[in-house]
Amino acid sequence: MGSVRRASAWLGLVDDSEMRYYDDEYAEESESGDVREAWATDPRVQVTAETAQGQGTRIATVTPDGFRDARGIGELFREGIPVIVNLTAMEPADAKRVVDFAAGLTFGLRGSIERVATRVFLLTPPDYQVINGEARRAAEGGFFNQS
Fold this sequence. Notes:
This protein is of the alpha+beta class. The protein has helices at residues 3-11, 22-29, 35-38, 43-55, 70-78, 92-108, 133-139, and strands spanning 60-62, 83-86, 112-117, 120-124. A 4-stranded mixed sheet has the order 1-2-4-3, covered by helices on one side. Strand 3 (112-117) and strand 4 (120-124) form a beta hairpin. The longest helix is centred in the C-terminal third of the chain and has 17 residues, at 92-108. The chain is elongated and about 70 Å long.
């Protein structure tokens, strides 16, 4: 189904109640329960994802559209996954609400929150440590101090 047809159906301009989509039929027949895994065309992608999940070396990046996406941030963080939250696409009022939510989330789960760039934050679980490379570089004298 094309994106224009889908948008028209969502707006109620087109009646799509009688149509069956390939995606719906495929989802019903899927045994794994997660349709996204079945759509991976390159087997290396699935193997890499499984390995990263087993080793605990995943980092999530989230660019929320509104405050309703805060739940996804919380679910990822509760699983012990560090989350990079990019708020550059949000309105300032909603971005402030998401930052407040993230601060409460990290406080409640004993993690930490750090501003990485303007309107970009890193949420880390308690078993992760963020190392500031600029402070170490300044202590060593910097790159240009070759004496």
